[in-house]
Amino acid sequence: MELKRTAYLKKLIEKKGNGRVKIVTGLRRCGKSYLLFELYRRYLLENGVREDQFITLSLEEIENAKYRNPFELDKYIRSRITDSDKQYFVLIDEIQYVSEIKNPYLDDSAAKINFTDVVLGLMKNKNADIYITGSNSKMLSSDILTQFRDRGDEIRVYPASFAEFCEIYDGDMRNAWLDYYTYGGMP
């Protein structure tokens, strides 16, 4: 059984290639990563995008801990964008793990570099379509879109609705309801 998240997938498809960063936010464990890395990625692959056009990174994974440094993250992604004639899809999971660090090029101790600097810089690459997920309070606040200065589109993901849940059960409303009220809408 697979939760299709059709409404959210449609939103991602509509925003594909619009020149803005797509910011997928929501509660922990509500399906943001699954939506982006499974459903949306599968859609893109089924519609002509090749495997080598994806740059994916989960910052939650310990093996990617060095990319929590904004300079390392920027360097890694730029090193993967190698062909100016190719469209790349940059998918970064749990972007809030990127640390805010002192800008080493300025004497001002208040000057900081963080993930928004990385993403805004990457957006200048015309062949990079950028998608990020996040779930902490900073990512859930309205401030995140302000930080991207009208260069981001938020897709807020919620736990599964009962209607979404019913899709899995092929119209068997009784069993769908029993499981929905027992386990809730968390995927």
List keywords for this structure.
187 residues; alpha/beta; Rossmann fold; two-stranded antiparallel ribbon; 8 helices; 7 strands
CATH topology type: Rossmann fold
Uncertain runs: none
Can you name the CATH architecture?
3-Layer(aba) Sandwich
**What level of helicity do the residues show?**
25-40%
The main sheet comes to:
5 strands, parallel
Question: Which overall shape is indicated by the principal axes computed on the Cα atoms?
Answer: globular
Major β-sheet strand ordering: 2-3-6-1-7
Mean pLDDT, to the nearest integer, reads 90
Number of domains: 1
Instruction: Say which CATH homologous superfamily is assigned.
Output: P-loop containing nucleotide triphosphate hydrolases
- Quickly count the helices: 8
Rounded to the nearest angstrom, the distance between the terminal CA atoms is 11 Å
Would you tell me the structural class of the helices and strands?
A: alpha/beta
- What fraction of residues sit in β-strands? 15-25%
Number of strands: 7
Note the run of SSEs as H and E: HEHEHEEEHEHHEHH
Q: Over all CA atoms, what is the radius of gyration?
A: 18 Å
Q: Give the C-level CATH assignment.
A: Alpha Beta
Describe the structure.
The chain has helices at 6-15, 32-46, 70-80, 115-122, 137-140, 143-147, 162-168, 173-183, and strands at 21-26, 54-58, 88-93, 101-102, 112-113, 128-134, 152-157. The mean pLDDT is 90. It has one domain: Rossmann fold. It has 187 residues and is α/β, with parallel strands linked by helices. Helix 1 (6-15) packs across helix 2 and helix 3 (70-80) runs parallel beside helix 4 (115-122). A five-stranded parallel sheet has the order 2-3-6-1-7, with helices on both faces. It has a two-stranded antiparallel ribbon with strand order 4-5. The chain has eight helices and seven strands; from the N terminus they run αβαβαβββαβααβαα.
